[in-house]
Amino acid sequence: xxxxxxxxxxxxxxxxxxxxxxxxxxxxxxxxxxxxxxxxxxxxxxxxxxxxxxxxxxxxxxxxxxxxxxxxxxxxxxxxxxxxxxxxxxxxxxxxxxxxxxxxxxxxxxxxxxxxxxxxxxxxxxxxxxxxxxxxxxxxxxxxxxxxxxxxxxxxxxxxxxxxxxxxxxxxxxxxxxxxxxxxxxxxxxxxxxxxxxxxxxxxxxxxxxxxxxxxxxxxxxxxxxxx
Length: 228
Hints:
By secondary structure, the protein is an all-alpha fold. The protein has 11 helices and 2 strands; from the N terminus they run H-H-H-H-H-H-H-E-E-H-H-H-H. A hairpin with a 2-residue loop joins strand 1 (158-159) and strand 2 (162-163). The model is unreliable at 202-206 (pLDDT under 50).
């Protein structure tokens, strides 16, 4: 698979550059929305829609936005799509809207979305940016579902809200709480690291050029660390 090919751009977010398990971004919604499958799926799909749309618009407008105001401009674009998605979910899936709560509008400041806008969409064409948004969104959704599929059945004795007879009376309440979420999250990170160890391309290409905060920090200090 060619590293710069369209298929790689689409699939890299599923495992090699999974935003949750490899890049360790979006931790707050990951822990909060994985107590049940419906919340996890709703959050994943909402973030995916925002990722695709914001990547497309930022890819188109990126070259016209001055560097001094690019981050505020990106946030305005992302916030506009988050508001649109929020209104659609509220209108057509009110139960999911209630389940997602405050974490739905907080997609605006999700590090995954802002990071892809800065690192990828602003530097690539519309087609690649759309594929990147879709791939990263699917990777985020897959990560949420993989954690929820452990936490909900064993923590609450249900699957997508439906009771599981043989687990209902033998639940592990710890898994439904925040510490249990951290435990499952940590185990999943370890599993993915084991699967991708030595294969993740970002490990070989680490540099200030790939850092979304490079413009805000002392690049000479970063280069000194790389040389050492």
